[in-house]
Amino acid sequence: MVKIFKKALISVLITVLGISVAQAAYPDRPITLIVPWSAGGGSDTSMRMLAEQLSKDMPVPVVVVNKTGAGGAMGTKAMCDAKPDGYTIGMVGSGVTGRQYSNPNANVLSDFTNIAFFGPEPAFLSAGAPTGIKTLEQFFDYAKANPGKIRNGNDNPGGFSHVAASVMEAKFGIKLTKVPYKGYAPTVVGLLAGEVDTVTVPVPNVIDQHKAGKLTILGVADNQRHFMAPYVPTFKEMGYDFVLGSFRTIIGPNGISADKLKYLEKKIIAAVSNPDFQKKARNAGFNPQPMGAVETAKYIKEFDEMLYPVLLSAGLVKVRHK
Questions:
Q1: Where does the chain hold its CATH 3.40.190.150 domain(s)?
Q2: Where in the chain is the domain with CATH 3.40.190.10?
Q3: Residues 212-227: pLDDT tens digits?
Q4: CATH 3.40.190.150 matches 31-121+247-313
């Protein structure tokens, strides 16, 4: 009887210790970071930079996978539907808030778990060189005199650059012909190819072409000028009351264990806070401002509350009315 008890006790201890070892081993294989946009754009570039830093800081590599489609909705859905084992995480931007009101099949904010905040990003308006448009005043004068003639490259309805263009239309009484692309990189390619006349994408995507004279950055929709293009005025400076920004955050599927979430949160905050990473990211035009999960959830909630009436006034709320 004693021998049987000892064997049973040993078996239990082995099981418990085995579980403890397995739990302590996380992560023990590569982690996938889903980016819902095409390669080459700002979201892809920033997340590849983050993945590189995380791969240095963690015992396993972090691998970026681009899953595009439906204005970012497909990649977000793939992340939300992933097994909540801590080995699949994803990036979302402000488009995740807009899409839930324009796309009945899009994920809502409660479909995922916030892990950490990467940083904010203001909207920009740029015009292709062939248009001859060099200032915001010229843009608005032409847009008002020629409704629908300016072709604006952006993402699908609900995406950030589409929202930015739509809000400009509603706010300033203009009409643009909005042309959707699958990400910021192809949007800029479309501008350079003459497929569209203007784009509403962030500065990292257009700064090199601006310096090369292939396009002109007309204005930034922020309360202050951007550190990467301090010579570009804000909309407010030019007399146009337009402030609108995006953001990038890291999320995971609902159901990830608390210890794994804490591990990921800690590692991401440390990576984004790293002085070398900060310098590299800012040189690329990003403004990394890390925050934890609680602060990130609060930020997105407040952004959603701010954005909804803007979308409503611009006629972009099609589903999930409040």
A1: 31-121+247-313
A2: 122-221
A3: 999 999 999 999 999 9
A4: yes
> Cβ distance 60 to 87 under 8 Å?
no
Asked if 268 and 290 touch (Cβ cutoff 8 Å), the reply is yes
Calpha distance 115→93 (Å, rounded): 13
Could you tell me the CA-to-CA distances from 300 to 46, 120, 132, 143, 318 in Å, in that order? 19, 11, 38, 33, 20
Mean pLDDT, the chain, whole residue set:
92
Is CATH 3.20.20.370 what the domain over 122-221 is classified as, yes or no?
A: no
pLDDT at 252 over 80: yes
C-alpha span between 39 and 43 (Å, rounded): 8
- Interval 53-76 mean pLDDT: 95
Write down the pLDDT at residue 20.
47
Half-sphere exposure (CA, 13 Å, Cβ side) for 224? 3
* CA atoms 128, 132, 134, 137: torsion sign: negative
Helix (H, G, I), strand (E, B) or coil at 103: coil
Give the C-alpha separation, 110 to 254, whole Å.
Answer: 9
Residue 126's H or E segment, with its range, is strand 112-128
Which two structure tokens, joined as six digits, stand for 179?
């042309």
The C-alpha torsion from 279 through 188 and 303 to 143, rounded to 10°, is: 130
* Mean pLDDT for the stretch of residues 178-191: 93
pLDDT tens digits, one per residue of 79-130: 999 999 999 999 999 989 999 998 999 999 999 999 999 999 999 999 999 9
Cα 219–Cα 315–Cα 298 angle in degrees, nearest 5:
70
Tell me the mean pLDDT in the region 244-261. Answer: 96
From 60, 8, 73, select the one nearest 32 (Cα to Cα).
Answer: 60
Backbone angles phi, psi at 82, to 5 degrees: -70, 160
